[in-house]
Amino acid sequence: MVYGSEFPNSSFVGVDISDMFPQAIKPPNTTFTVANVLDGLPFEDNSFDYVFQRLLVFAFTRSQWAIAIRELIRVTKPGGWIELSESDTEPQRTGSVTREMSQRVTHALRARGIDPLIARSIDKPLILHDLEDVRTQFISIPLYWGGRLG
Questions:
Q1: Whole-angstrom distance, CA of residue 55 vs CA of residue 20
Q2: How many structural domains comprise the chain?
Q3: Average pLDDT over every residue of 90-103
Q4: Are residues 110 and 55 part of one domain?
Q5: Of 14, 29, 45, 47, which residue is least crowded by CB atoms under 10 Å?
Q6: Same domain, 15 and 69
Q7: Is residue 142 in some structural domain?
């Protein structure tokens, strides 16, 4: 789905740390900016009605998550919405090989200060900032459960 085309009366801003933005499909109400949320986003306070961030589970240490969330709150208008979508990296119903690989990856990430299970507690910093209507939802995506590899 190309959101800009679906909502022509809205404007959309995509932000990434590197310039890997789509070139072929870009609705006229969509712009892209290279920025790092940890360095501060190049937007005024209270700029956006809706802020969406996803799949940064391996990008931030636990202390960096607090910085990123504060920055998302800063650029969101009062009464606006922040949505965070992160993966829980603990596989379920795995085989012995996948379980061992997952344990090694988890150990390596934690050694770097990264919490591979941050999705389970991502709501805590939002609650600490007194945001209203903080909700979480867990959705399981089965990927061949069972067998030696899992």
A1: 15
A2: 2
A3: 84
A4: yes
A5: 45
A6: no
A7: no
Cα–Cα dist 31/51, whole Å: 14
Residue 19: HSE in the Cβ half-sphere, 13 Å Cα cutoff: 1
Looking at the fold, whether 104 and 83 belong to one and the same domain comes out as yes
Residue 140 in 3-state DSSP? coil
Contact status, residue 97 vs residue 148, Cβ threshold 8 Å? yes
Query: Please, what's the largest Cα pairwise distance for the chain?
Result: 52
User: Do the domain assignments include residue 100?
Assistant: yes
Domain that residue 22 falls in: 1-34
Query: 93: which 2 tokens?
Result: 């119903």
Q: Which pLDDT score is estimated for 94?
A: 78
Top-confidence residue, 18 or 24: 18
